[in-house]
Structure formats: structure tokens, C-alpha cells
Amino acid sequence: MTANFKYSLRFTLDPENWDDIKESKLLDFCQKGRIDDVAFFINPEELNQSHLTAEQTQVWLDTIQTVGLKLKQLGITTSLNPWTTLMHSDRGRTINPKLGFDTMVDYQGKKAESIACPGDPKWQSYIADCYRQFASIQPSFLWLEDDFRHYNHTPLKLGCFCDRHMQIYNQKLHENLSRTDFIEKVLQPGKPTKARLVYLETAQQEMITVARKIADAVTAFSPHTKMGLMSSFPNWHALEGRDWNGLFDALSGNHPRVNRPHLPAYNEVSPLKYSRDFEAFTRTTAEFVSNGPQTEFYPELENYMYSPFAKSNLFTQFQLESTALIGASGIFLNLFDMMGNGIDETYHYARLLADSKTWLNHISSSETKLNRENLSGVMVLVDQNSAQTMHTNFGKDPEELLPTETNWLSLLGSLGIASFPKKDDHKTQYHQQTIAVSGQFLRNLNNAQIRQLITDNTVFLDGESVQVLLDRNLNKELLGVSNGDWHKARTGYQSFEQADGQTIDGIENPRMTMLQHMGDYLQLTYAKGANVETISNAYNEYHKCLGPMMTVINEHIFVLPINTDSKYGWESQYYSIKEGLFKQYLEKHTPVGFAVEMPGVKLVTEQKNGFKAYFSNFTIDEQPKIKFHVAEQYQFTHWILHAKSGSDLKDVSVHCSWDADGIGTIDYSLKGLETILLTAEV
């Protein structure tokens, strides 16, 4: 059965600059581009007049309603995308004194002029009234923008620390702290403080309360309208204490959860860079939000500052089609400017959208749609509450509280290794799984949970994870490590690592940098008698061996003893030699699948009720054949290939030949920026 992959066009209709020509172009574009829904902006970007009065809002709704009747005749629904809740940034605007609510204050005491304080009861009542008014035209979807958050409101960084909020914090703490003293305690180096937990809890519950007020207001006027929430960076949402389940339960009511995860490329970037961010932002958000296959995802595809000068059509189409990797229900298309020019036919977007629609409809059917509950590969654990448990080093900047738990996900996914994010609720024990942990994730677990996790599974750990074990005195018991010493990068100690005794890419004893674009090195000393296999050693520039770098402990614990560089993350690890070493280990110790000799191709696999393999080429290079390694029980000879052929669908049987090493080859040329699906024909 073929499902409908919903195209929702975000569109600015300026009531002061709307005419029959613009309307005709919109209707024509929707038909040619196979658009299902138009989500009209209200008060967006260049046309934004700060927070609107009810009279100002009605001007927008009256015009939108008129156009919506004509869209309805074409079978196209109307939705609303009000551009502000709190307000994205000041931009020289000020709040109308008639509205009377206060503005946000950041952690440094900066006070906004147009950004509302989320704890102000007057603003909470105002925004609920706004959404009640929006619901009056019975929209199909009604969205909350991604300014519904406490951070990134230019010129503010993190809020809110106004006098009202300071009173709330002090009441919970039974203290009388100044803003400066409170922030100092929130960011205080070392273990989390009560002040930090109070801030996170307050921010978390505040947004849930507002979401519920908005949802109640909408439901009373338009019970069939689905409420959608836009979201941005999941690590920053952790910094504001976001409770994804609580927030969506409050907002969604009896409807499925509806989310717009961020597609991290408003301008065209290298597809390989996009590959890393797609894992860290898009797939991770989908994991946090999902509560089963009924959850609806409409990722935002935005081409800013618009036109093919911002992003090529081929890259736009790739972003569109690769949303299959999160099982998207549709796409939110922000293709044209937000100041009222309307449709620009010279961009040729209608043809692009029409060409992809048949394949996207097919890939969204019940038989082929990705099921996030059945994903297989390396399970990368993430936690929405990590800001509550992290230890800070300097206590100077809120960014010290940003989790770095998606490092393995970005790395392994970009290397063509099947992997997926998994939100950890601390209740489920994992057994005989392949799991990756980075950053300070383990601080969310007690010692018994850590023991079980590491003992019962094949585990990838980074240096920060090992540091948690050192802090908990679990290092010798679980890793056979007696102690560890950190050496900062670029300070003259370590220079490169060398995989002694190994050959990768035809290079004997291959080397990899420890100098550039990577974190610090945790030099581990292993206890006598520890079961340790050294994968690589650290060296200085004089070729002196400093000790082990990557190791395998007890044949099931892989240690990459580095932390995260504040600017470059793990950039140095995206290297063919590292790829070879990781895949050697995976092939020897796990059933995890991976792409072979296909640099930059992402592999997403399902292993339940059959086997699915999504291949997405995050490069502009064509791969002459599909080559991949999977466990023996999935080495099927016959597969169904689901691919796009022009504006049509290629749905054909293909043969896969397998060699003695368990590597399968399919004679299909995977084009640059192409996404396909293979399903086992059994």
C-alpha cells in the first residue's frame, strides 16, 4: 500500500502586498510541485512587527483564509506557522506597551527588548490567546516555532534570569542569591549543584506548562488541528532541561506527536559535513521525540538566503530524499523568501519536488518505511538529562554543559557503519548488544548500571567515559586500568598514533594524527595481567612510543582515549585508516553491518521481520557498486532495490554475490547524493 509523503510548503503571504498574480503562481506551483499542504507564515522575518495584537493578527488570517478556500478546491490543506512565540531575536523591535509583558534577561544580565520572559503570566496568557485566534480558521497543522526555548535569542545567549525568575530560583533554594552568584553556582566546576538543578527543573516545567495552555486553547476551538513543535539542536535543548516526552504529551493531546527536526544545512555545505550533523541533530532529535511509529516527522528543508545561489537543486533534492533515513512522514519546505515575493518560478523547484514525490510516497509505505523501533547496528546512547549530571571544568560558560554524546554516532555513521541513537531511560538493561558511549553519559548511571552495561555488552568508550570510571573507582575492575593522565593536544607531548604491526590501505604500521583537530589524550596505564590488545600506540615527534592509544579490553571493550576539542570535535577521526581499524574490530567481534569501499555512504539497517538496508551517498562521487558486510544470517542472494528513476520508481530484483569474508556486492551504480533502499527477497 502506498502512503502519502506530505509536502508542506512554508509560504509568506503578505496581506499588504498580495494580488491575483501572486495567488495564481502559488496555486500553479502547488499543482506542479505536488504540494499537499501550505503552512502560511504569520508575522515572519523582515515583515515581523514584534508581538502582534489580536487586530493585527486578524489581518493575516483574513487573507490566508481567502486563499485557503482556493487551495481546498485543489485538495490542498491549509496550516499555520506563526513565526514567533517568545521571539527569535530583538532586531530593534520593542513590545507594544498594550501587551504589557516583561522581557527575557540572560545569564550576564542583558535584558531583551522584544523577547518575552517565558515565566511571565501575562505572556503565557497572551500566547495562549494568540493560538486560540489562530485555531479559529481550523488549520490542519498549527506550529510552534523553534524560538520556543530559553537559549539563542540574539543578543541573549541563555535565559531567563530576570527578577521574577531570580525570585523563583531563590525560593526553591531557600537563599537570597544575586544573579551573578546564582550563575556562578549553576556553572560551578565539578559536580552538579542544587542551583543548576533548580534552573533546569524550572526551565523544563515552564515550557511544559505553556505548551499545555496553548494546546488547551487550540483544542477548544479546533479539536482536529494537529499541534507541531519545531526544534533545533538537541544538545542545546539539554542545556535548558527539555523534557521531550513531557513537552510533547502536553502539546499533542489525543493527536500523534508532530515534530520538525532540524536539517542542518540552511546553506549548501559539504555533503560529508552534512552527514555528521545529520546524525547529531536530525536523527538524534527524532529519537528523543519518537514514542512509536505513529510519531510524525516533517524535517525542515530551508534554503536560506534562498534561490539556487544558496543551495543547488541537486543538494536540495538530496536533503529531501535522505529524510527516508528517519522515517519522515513528509517535509517542511522553506524554499522561498519570507518577505512576500511569493513563488519564484526561475528556481525550478516544482519540477524537483514532482520528480521525487513518487519515490518518497513509495518509501513511506508500510512495507518500506523505516521503523525506528527496529534499527540495528551500533547503539549510541544519549540522555536528555545529561546537563543535570555533567561535571564542568571551568565554570565560565554555559556551553560547558553541552553534552557530547553523539560523537560516536556522527563518526560511525559517516564511516558507513550501521548505527543509531538510543535514548536511555535508565530502566532497560541491554544484553549482548553493541553500544557506544561518549562524553559524560555514564554519569547518568549508578555504579551497578555501569557494571551491567559494560560487562554484558560490546562497548565503545571514549576518554571522557573512561574518566567517569576513574572518578567512580571502577577503572581497574572493569577495564584493568590502574590510572590515567590527560595530555592536552598541541602542547608538545603526543604527535601521532601508529597501528603497529598492522596494514591498512596497503600501508604498513599506518599513522594518524594526534596533533590536529582532535581532543586531548588520556594516557592509560594498564594493570599487570590485564587482558588488553593494543590497536595503536601514541608517539611524539621524535618517534618515542608513549604508550597505548586505542585498545581492546577483554575482547569486548574498545577504548578511544580522547575527549572532544571545543572547536573541531573528533574531526581527526574521520580518516580511512581509522575506518579500517574500526571495521576490523566490528567484523571480528560483532554482527554489525557496514558499507565496504564506499567512502561517505551512510548505511541504516533494520533487522526484524526481514532485513532492510538504506544506503545514502553523502558525497558527490558515484560509487560503481554497492558493497557491504552483514552478519551471515542476512547474507541473502536476492534483494529488491527501491530507487528513483527520473520522476518514476525503480523497484526491481537484484542479485548479490558474497565472498568468503562476508562481503556482498550488487551491480548497481550509486550516484552521488542518491538514497536507495534494499529489502531482502526471501
Primary descriptors:
24% strand, 682 residues, 3 domains, Immunoglobulin-like, seven-stranded mixed sheet, TIM Barrel, 37 strands, single chain, Rossmann fold, alpha/beta, globular
The share of residues in extended strands comes to 15-25%
Biggest β-sheet, characterized?
Answer: 9 strands, antiparallel
CATH architecture of the largest domain: 3-Layer(aba) Sandwich
**Can you give the helix content as a percent range?**
25-40%
The rounded Rg comes to 26 Å
Shape designation? globular
What's the end-to-end separation, in Å?
Answer: 19 Å
Which consecutive residue ranges, at least 5 long each, have pLDDT under 50? none
Number of domains: 3
Average pLDDT, to the nearest integer?
96
Total of DSSP H or I helical runs spanning 4+ residues? 16
Organism: Pediococcus ethanolidurans
Protein name: Glycoside hydrolase family 42 N-terminal domain-containing protein
Give the SSE layout:
Layout: E1 6-11, H1 20-32, E2 37-42, H2 54-73, E3 77-82, E4 103-105, E5 111-116, H3 121-135, E6 141-144, E7 151-153, E8 156-158, H4 163-173, H5 179-186, H6 194-221, E9 226-230, H7 234-239, H8 244-252, E10 258-260, H9 271-289, E11 296-297, E12 300-302, H10 313-321, E13 330-334, H11 349-363, E14 375-376, E15 378-382, H12 407-414, E16 419-423, E17 434-437, H13 447-455, E18 458-462, H14 463-471, H15 475-479, E19 481-487, E20 496-498, E21 503-504, E22 507-508, E23 511-513, E24 521-526, E25 532-534, E26 537-539, E27 545-548, E28 551-553, E29 557-560, H16 576-589, E30 594-595, E31 601-607, E32 611-617, E33 626-629, E34 638-645, E35 648-658, E36 663-666, E37 675-680
Parallel strand pairs: 1-2, 1-13, 2-3, 6-9, 9-10, 10-11, 12-13, 15-16, 15-17, 17-18, 18-29
Antiparallel strand pairs: 4-5, 7-8, 14-31, 19-24, 20-23, 20-26, 21-22, 25-28, 26-27, 28-29, 30-33, 31-32, 32-37, 33-36, 34-35, 34-37, 35-36
Helix pairs in contact: 1-11, 3-6, 4-6, 5-6, 6-8, 9-12, 10-11
